[in-house]
Design a protein that fits this description.
This protein has about 180 residues and is α/β, with parallel strands linked by helices. Helices cover about 40% and strands about 10% of the residues. Strands 2-1-3-4 form a 4-stranded parallel sheet. Helix 2 packs across helix 9 (about 160-180). The chain is globular.
């Protein structure tokens, strides 16, 4: 008997490597693409993976975001363009026992988990496990990257894409530091 692959999902990607990225919740772009971390947020993650792969190819063997496990702290797509007042689930929704159990199940077998954004970081204690490294980072959306990485060093890019790449590379360096030290970045 062969196992059928899971159906495409706006909130989850199984991935081929034991590394996972956990974001907050899918939005309109993820819903339309039927894949997590779509649009610019996903492109920024790809830029960061380029750096992560070159700096630590054993842990990050691919530059493709969909080679990794990706899930969200909550499954319900939320976005203003979808008519929602909030674009993220509440802490109570994220920490609900059935939701925590879902995230744990989706991360089974992952030895490295990077929590991307404050809402995903609410799950840090629940995801700690022997043999698993849990790192913390900002979200890879433009708003979060610009808020965290600004100033002359990040204005040096010739255009918006070049500045996004500079910010994504710094995000990647901070992810590596978090994985090495366990400190929030």
């Amino acid at each position: 008997m062969t196992r059928e692959a899971p159906a495409p999902s706006a909130h989850y990607n199984r991935g081929r490597h034991p590394v996972a990225f956990v974001f907050s919740t899918p939005g309109a772009r993820e819903l339309a693409a039927v894949r997590p971390v779509a649009g610019v947020t996903g492109e920024n993650l790809d830029f960061a993976l380029g750096y992560l792969h070159s700096a630590d190819p054993r842990r990050f063997p691919s530059t493709d975001r969909y080679a990794y496990r990706i899930t969200n702290a909550h499954t319900r797509p939320l976005a203003a363009s979808l008519g929602h007042a909030a674009s993220e689930a509440t802490p109570a929704e994220i920490l609900a026992p059935d939701n925590v159990a879902r995230v744990r199940a989706e991360l089974a077998g992952c030895v490295v988990v990077v929590l991307c954004g404050l809402r995903a970081q609410l799950l840090a204690a629940a995801l700690a496990a022997p043999g698993r490294i849990v790192g913390r980072a900002s979200h890879t959306g433009n708003r979060a990257l610009v808020a965290k990485y600004h100033g002359p060093a990040f204005a040096a890019g010739a255009d918006g894409r070049a500045r996004r790449i500079l910010r994504a590379r710094q995000w990647a360096r901070d992810v590596l530091a978090s994985l090495a030290s366990g400190e929030d970045v």
